[in-house]
Amino acid sequence: MPSDPPGSLRDEPKRNGRNVLDSINTSNSLAGSSKLQFIQNAIMTPFSHRKNESSSIISGLAPVIMTPRMMKAASTVSSKQPRERIVNSSMSRSRMDFATLGRAPLRLGLGTRRVTSRDLEIVEATEQLLHVEVPEPDGVASNVSLLRGFNATIPSAEQSKSRRRQMRSVDAPHIGLKKLGMNARGLLADEDDHEGQSVTSEDDVVMVPRSDATLRKGKRRGRESLSATKMLGKDELTRQRKEILRDKENINIKRSLVNNEIMEITHKIEALDDIRTKLEKDLIKLQEDELELDDELQGVKERLEFEQSGPARMSQSFQILHSSRRRKGPAFLPSEHDELPPGVAFMTLDSHTAPISALDFSEPYGTLVSASVEDSQPIVWDLLSGTESGRLRGHIGTVKCIQVEDTVCVTGSEDCSIRLWDLRLVDAEGSDGWGDEGEIVSLSDVAEEDSSEEGTRPNGIRNGMGKEQKEDAACLRVLEGHTKTVTTLFFEDNCLVTGASDKTLRQWDLTTGQCVMTMDILWAIAHPTSSTLANNLFAGAAASVGTFAFPMPPRADGSWDMYEDYVGGVQFWGYGLVSGSGDGAVRMWDMRTGQAHRTLAGHSAPVTCLQFDEVHIASGSLDKTIQIWDVRTGGVFETLKYDHPVTALQFDTRKVIAATGENGVKIYNRTSMQHSTLLTNGHTSPVERLRYMDRYLVTGGRDSTVKVWSL
Amino acid sequence: MSTELPYAADAEVSLSYDELEVLRLQYEREQLQAHVTVQTKFNFAWGLVKSPLREHQVEGVRLLQDLYRSEPTRRRECLYYLALGHYKMGNFEEAKQFNGLLMEKEPTNLQALSLAQLIEKGVTREGYIGMALVGGAAALGTIVLAGLIRRATRK
User: Fold this and answer.
1) Residue A35: band (very low, low, confident or very high) from pLDDT cuts 50, 70, 90
2) What residues form DSSP beta bridges with A401?
3) How confident is the model at residue A156 (pLDDT cuts 50, 70, 90)?
4) Where are the transmembrane segments (chain B) (predicted)?
5) ipTM given for this complex
6) What's the rounded Cα separation, in Å, for the pair A618 and B65?
7) Which of A201, A443, A451, B61 is packed most tightly, with the most Cβ within 10 A?
8) How far apart are CA A689 and CA A700, in angstroms?
């Protein structure tokens, strides 16, 4: 390269000058660098004309710097292989080293570039940013580019509009006058809004009919503005047309931008809502934990007192304490009636005229459904106000079992049918059934359901009133299949299992209303599995073919009935099903096979109620006991003895609440192993049904009342 | 989408003071409302990058970096603007990196290709100018030295 002809020396400053000019052209606004170049220029020019020894140094350097081949090579290399250049920028540096070398004095000297902390900040961020994932643009990002958005929204986007306005403001004073005149007559049109849309809008405005006095003026003006428009010429008009179209396009872009922002905000709100619900759940969880701890503390305290009085039973208690702590309790919902004294019935619902046969509620202060022995129409209650909010009409026999989940209610009746209700559709009118028909608004979706189920009357006839039709408003399905009284049921999600006096259990799919499986208890008795000890079953169990009837032991008030409900209780979890039946056995079934794989024998009278959790099964029986079984071993974990037959129970890890044929509700504290009885403001006849949630207990008694307790 | 990027020349056309002011006001107003839309932020950033003042450019690039961090879907576009911003500031090394990343994603992007060439040119020019400066200094030194020597030999 030093061997290059010295002739090129001459060209060098010129080229340099051109180069600088170029750079000025391309970066004329770049103050810093242009200043630099100016200085550079000034320094360079004297040397180019002088012919002394010093210029030979430049001539030595110049060819190296200015070889066009080299420049080209450098730039093509860089543009061809961007990938490698990023990956190993050190290599690129070595390739460009003469440039870096040359740039070094610029960096060092002259002080043209004031490096601020901001500068450093953005340069330092580069490394980090380059390592961030760059995803494919999607959504609006792929439709409207930032630049288009920019062009659509910068102020100069409005320029053409104002320019057009100015073009037409040849008659601007006239418009002003016109405006004034029209304003005076209250005729001010929204002229400005029209202007952007059509050039002829002004003339349209002029054509607005007006009173005699202004008519002439208006005409004249019309002509004037018309002529003014004409003067714009074809080019101008096409240009304006284009501009207007572009403006409209801009509007579209702006619109999609705004829509996008709205969408994004919606997403953000949703995300925040999610977080809030999660936090609320956490809060509830904390309250649950607190309640649980309170309960445990209470139990331990009681236990302490108890043990101090009689330290003899240490060993047993220890084991239980240990296991109770290990057990995971059910959801202990935060209580809403903290202010109420515990153990008091604070509400009495007394619309029923006969002993309560079944009840369930959706949640504390939610909806209660209760049925009595002599009434085929369960009453729906609003627990917040304690008032009747309607009745479930449809069954033609006593309703023996009810389960409520949220707004879904399933009832089983003596008429062998099971009905599925939507409690939201329950007629708000009184019990006479002659309410205003217009109130049943959401018929349409129900109508489809029950017409498919029952194949009954079309919608229109509903207006024809009558009890018969009204009853079905809330009834979504009728499940038929059992041949005797449906005595118990349990459902979760869409799976329902019912037990009936026909000695079968049926599994139903609530979405289709089909019976999925039938489990025959008699067959299970006849074909005992290995673990079954049929001998332990009480006498008469084997002879239970035919109608089942068992004379129940007298209650506290001396009354007694013939007990005819063959299946006292069912519950399932996953594929595991547990049933308690009239032969005194608690059976565990596999719902996949429909086979009873284990029978727990221990009761000497029919099982009337049953519940299980992960660890225990609790079953109540007419033999005046509650047995708590260990699910894994099948052995009896605990036996609670009462004076009268047990008809209902519910338990959690800390307590067992039972209706035992007495006026008071029995509570057994599993931590302290203490019994207590709820009597304050309680039932006047034996309690037969109960259901609790958290600290909210609802009981139904033979005195035909339903009482709500705070625990 | 790739075609909707401005060429580097566009970055050299600065907005008028008023226009930039409008963009700034819009940005600040939205900032007060605690929700700055992407477009507003970009508008202001791009307006700043287009400005001839270096402080403005720095601020603009900073805003673009913010956008790049917070809006993954806009990252690819931002790559280009970041490259352009750095190029305009004279941070050729950074400009090259950003532009290179973009070209890795979109090898056929015309704007990116042209920017790459511009960056190379900028680097070469700077190098040349620097060399010339050194050369000039050396020349001056030689003259002085030669003068001194001549004076010394005359005596």
Assistant:
1) low
2) A412
3) low
4) 128-149
5) 0.72
6) 65
7) B61
8) 5
Average pLDDT rounded to a whole number, residues A213-230? 46
Number of folded domains that form chain A: 2
Question: What chain B residue is nearest to A126 in terms of C-alpha separation?
Answer: B94
Is B73's CB within 8 Å of A135's CB?
Answer: yes
CATH superfamily of B8-154: Tetratricopeptide repeat domain (1.25.40.10)
Q: How many contacts (CB atoms, under 8 Å) link A and B?
A: 239
Q: Are residues A275 and A155 in the same domain?
A: yes
Which element (helix H / strand E) includes A629? strand A625-630
Domain map (residue ranges) of chain B: 8-154
- Closest residue in chain A to residue B3, using alpha carbons only: A145
pLDDT over 80 at B21, yes or no: yes
- pLDDT tens, A314-367? 444 333 333 333 333 334 444 455 677 888 888 899 889 999 999 999 988 889
Render pLDDT for A532-553 as a digit per residue (tens, 0 to 9).
Answer: 444 445 544 444 556 788 888 8
Q: Which residues of B touch A56 (CB under 8 A)?
A: none
Q: What region, left, alpha or beta, does residue A503 occupy, with left being phi > 0 and alpha being psi -120 to 50 degrees? A: left
**Dihedral through CA A76, CA A79, CA A80, CA A81, nearest 10?**
120
Per the structure block, which two tokens stand in for A230? 């004409």
Query: Do A145 and A272 reside in the same domain of the chain?
Result: yes
Q: How far apart are the CA of B147 and the nearest CA of chain A, in angstroms? A: 12
Report CB contact under 8 Å: B101, A54: no
Q: What are phi and psi of A478, to 5 degrees?
A: -120, 125
Option in B81, B120, B132 nearest A74 (CB): B120
The closest of B125, B79, B92 to A93, measured between CA atoms, is B92
- Residue A225 has which token pair? 């503005």
Least confident of A25-29, A141-145, A304-308, B43-47: A25-29
Domain end call among A130, A150, A168: A130
Q: Given phi > 0 = left and psi -120 to 50 = alpha, else beta, which region is A139?
A: left
Last residue in a domain, options A111, A130, A149: A130
Judgement on whether residues A147 and A265 belong to the same structural domain of the protein: yes
DSSP 8-state code for residue A474: S
- Per the structure, the complete domain to which residue A260 belongs is given by 136-288
